[in-house]
Design brief:
The protein is an alpha/beta fold. It is built from 12 helices and 23 strands. The strands form 4 sheets. Strands 1, 2, 3, 4, 5, 21, 22 and 23 form an 8-stranded mixed beta sheet that branches. An 8-stranded parallel beta sheet has the order 6-9-10-11-12-13-14-15, sandwiched between helices. Strand 10, helix 3 (about 150-160) and strand 11 form a beta-alpha-beta unit. Helix 2 packs parallel to helix 3, helix 6 (about 205-215) crosses helix 7 (about 240-245) and helix 10 runs antiparallel to helix 11.
Length: about 425
C-alpha cells in the first residue's frame, strides 16, 4: 500500500476546512485532519498553500493544441494531459455537429480514453454531444449543415459508437415532438443509458416549452445565455426558464467574453452555487502559450485579430470546411468569420482555473467558486460519490495552489504529476 500525505495546507473541501493534512492510501483519501501527524511514506509540504479538490470542466472542445473531433485516441489523451497540468482532474469532452461518421469516430476515440485513462491526464467522465440536435435558429458555431431534430436512429448510433460513455446529450426541446425523445431517455436513463444527462441547448424554445422540457426530464442547460432564447423585456424564453426552475443545472462559460460578468453574477445569485456549474467551452488553444499559437497564425490589423491558418487546422474540424469558414483569435477568445455578417463566438481559450479566478474577481467567495467548479458539476454528472470534493473514501484528485490559484502540484488518482507545474 502506497501512502502519501499532504501536510500543513489550508484545505478547502470545497468549503473551508482549515489548516490540516490529508492522508492518501493508494488512490483514495483515507484521512483529513487538523491534528499533527507523524506521516509515513511520501510527504508533500503544502505550507503557505491552499489545497483544493481537482476541478471538473463539464464542457470542453480541446486543449494543448488538440481538438475533440479528430477521432484520434492520442489527441484525446493529449487533451487530458493538458488540462491536468492546469489543475482540472475530470473532463467532459464536447462533440460538435458534424457528419455521423465524424461524430461516431470522435465518440469511439473518447470512449477508449474513458476506459483506459492516461496516467498523467485528467479522467474523462464521458462525451457531450452538443450541437447535433440543436436549433438552426440558435446554432452559433455549430455547423448548421449537420443539425437534425432529435431522433432515435442517430442517437442509438452515437450511443453504440461511444460504448455507453456518452454522458451528456443536448437538444433543442422545441424540435422534440411531444418530448418523446426526452421522455424516453428519462424513463430508461438508468437501466439502458448509464445515467445519461439530458441537456437543453442551442435552443429557440419558448418559456413554456423550456419549462415543460425540464419537467419532462432535462436536468442541464448548455452554456446558459449562449445559443439560447430569451433576454427580452416582453418575451420570455429558455434563459428565463433556466433562471427560474429549481431543477436544472446551469452551465456558465466564465471567460468574460461569452457572458458579461454582470449576467454571470446574476445567474449565480439567482440559482446559487449549488445549481451553477462553471465551464470553459474551450477550444484546442486552451493551455497553449500565446507565443506558440501566434507563431502559426496571421495577424490581420484591420480586424485586430489573428487568423488561424488553414494548414494549422485539423481536417476533422467541422467548423472549418472547404475554406468557407475562417477561425480567428480576438481578445482572448475564438471567433468565426470575423468582420463578416456571420461573425460569431466559437469557444474560449482559457482553462478552468483561469475561469475560477475570474469568478472570484467578480466578487464571489473562493468557497462558492470552487463549489461551482467541483462539487456542483460532479453532482449533476452523477459522479459525486467518487470525485468533486475532498472527503474520506473519495478518489484523491487534489490540487495544491498558491494564494493566486497558481498550480503548484496536481495529485491525480493519488499520485503527483511528475512534472512540477508553476
Amino acid at each position: 500500500m502506497e501512502i502519501l500525505t499532504i501536510a500543513n495546507g489550508d484545505i478547502y473541501t470545497p468549503t473551508h476546512f482549515g489548516q490540516g493534512s490529508i492522508v492518501i492510501q493508494d488512490d483514495t483519501i483515507s484521512e483529513i485532519t487538523t491534528e499533527t501527524l507523524q506521516p509515513s511514506g511520501e510527504v508533500i509540504d503544502a505550507s503557505n498553500c491552499l489545497v483544493i479538490p481537482g476541478l471538473i470542466d463539464g464542457l470542453i472542445h480541446g486543449g494543448g493544441g488538440y481538438g475533440t473531433m479528430t477521432g484520434d485516441v492520442e489527441d484525446v489523451a493529449s487533451i487530458a494531459r493538458a488540462h491536468a497540468r492546469s489543475g482540472v482532474t475530470s473532463l467532459v469532452l464536447g462533440i460538435s455537429s458534424g457528419s455521423m461518421a465524424q461524430i461516431n469516430s470522435a465518440l469511439t476515440a473518447i470512449a477508449h480514453v474513458v476506459d483506459e485513462p492516461v496516467a498523467d491526464g485528467s479522467q474523462i467522465i464521458g462525451s457531450y454531444v452538443e450541437g447535433k440536435f440543436g436549433s438552426l435558429a440558435k446554432n452559433g458555431a455549430q455547423n448548421a449543415k449537420y443539425i437534425t431534430p432529435p431522433n432515435f436512429e442517430e442517437f442509438h448510433a452515437m450511443w453504440a459508437a461511444s460504448d455507453g460513455t456518452l454522458k451528456v446529450i443536448s437538444i433543442a426541446p422545441e424540435n422534440d415532438e411531444n418530448f418523446q425523445f426526452i421522455k424516453h431517455l428519462t424513463t430508461f436513463r438508468t437501466d439502458a443509458y448509464n445515467d445519461i444527462v439530458i441537456a437543453m441547448g442551442h435552443t429557440n424554445a419558448t418559456f413554456a416549452q423550456a419549462m415543460a422540457a425540464i419537467d419532462a426530464g432535462v436536468t442541464r442547460a448548455t452554456h446558459t445565455y449562449n445559443g439560447m432564447s430569451g433576454m427580452h423585456h416582453r418575451t420570455l424564453g429558455a434563459i428565463e426558464a433556466v433562471l427560474s426552475h429549481p431543477d436544472i443545472h446551469a452551465e456558465l462559460i466564465i471567460d468574460e467574453h461569452h457572458v458579461h460578468p454582470f449576467w454571470g453574477n446574476n445567474l449565480i445569485q439567482q440559482k446559487g452555487a449549488h445549481a451553477v456549474g462553471l465551464i470553459t467551452d474551450c477550444t484546442e488553444l486552451a493551455g497553449v502559450p500565446t507565443e506558440a499559437w501566434q507563431a502559426s497564425a496571421t495577424y490581420v490589423p484591420e480586424l485586430d485579430a489573428y487568423r488561424l491558418n488553414e494548414d494549422a487546422i485539423s481536417e476533422h474540424d467541422t467548423a472549418f470546411e472547404a475554406g468557407t469558414t475562417e477561425k480567428y483569435v480576438r481578445n482572448g477568445a475564438m471567433w468565426l468569420d470575423v468582420g463578416t455578417p456571420t461573425e460569431r463566438l466559437a469557444g474560449a481559450n482559457i482553462t478552468l482555473m483561469d475561469g475560477v479566478r475570474n469568478v472570484i474577481n467578480w466578487g464571489n467567495s473562493l468557497e462558492d467558486a470552487l463549489t461551482m467548479a467541483t462539487l456542483t458539476p460532479a453532482q449533476n454528472l452523477g459522479v459525486s460519490t467518487s470525485v468533486g470534493s475532498i472527503e474520506t473514501g473519495k478518489t484523491a484528485d487534489i490540487v495544491i495552489v498558491d494564494e493566486n490559484l497558481s498550480v503548484q502540484t496536481v495529485i491525480l488518482r493519488g499520485k503527483p504529476l511528475k512534472k512540477h507545474i508553476s
